[in-house]
């Protein structure tokens, strides 16, 4: 298996951190922008896109702040994806920080995918 490389992205979002957290941490919230449907059973989440499904294990979350998953296909690796809310202490600006991994030749594609999904999230939140 080819080594994956870590990449991080920052998306300013003009919305309250508590509302944003609902959209990044709950199956119903994630179904609005991340996948066609999201189900969870305990620490396992199933993400469904146009008939295909991927399972991920919840690695951890901190209420109001972040959520972290590992795809079951990456089990036994250090790979994960994390959605984290960052609030600037001075300006109170809210950003969604994304950490993910992709194979080296797929990083640009991975970033574009996140840009499209976060763009949809911003529209839903009225933050576009």
From TrEMBL:
It comes from the Bacteria. It comes from Cochleicola gelatinilyticus. This is START-like domain-containing protein. Pfam families: START_2 (PF19569). Residues 1-126 form the START-like domain.
């Amino acid at each position: 298996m080819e080594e994956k490389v870590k990449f991080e992205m920052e998306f300013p979002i003009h919305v309250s951190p508590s509302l944003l957290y609902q959209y990044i941490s709950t199956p119903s919230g994630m179904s609005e922008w991340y996948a066609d449907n999201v189900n969870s059973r305990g620490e396992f989440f199933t993400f469904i896109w146009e008939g295909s499904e991927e399972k991920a294990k919840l690695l951890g979350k901190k209420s109001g702040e972040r959520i972290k998953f590992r795809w079951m296909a990456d089990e036994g690796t250090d790979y994960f994806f994390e959605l984290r809310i960052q609030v600037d202490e001075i300006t109170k600006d809210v950003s969604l920080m994304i950490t993910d991994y992709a194979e080296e030749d797929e990083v640009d594609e991975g970033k574009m995918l996140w840009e499209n999904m976060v763009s949809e999230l911003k529209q839903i939140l009225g933050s576009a």
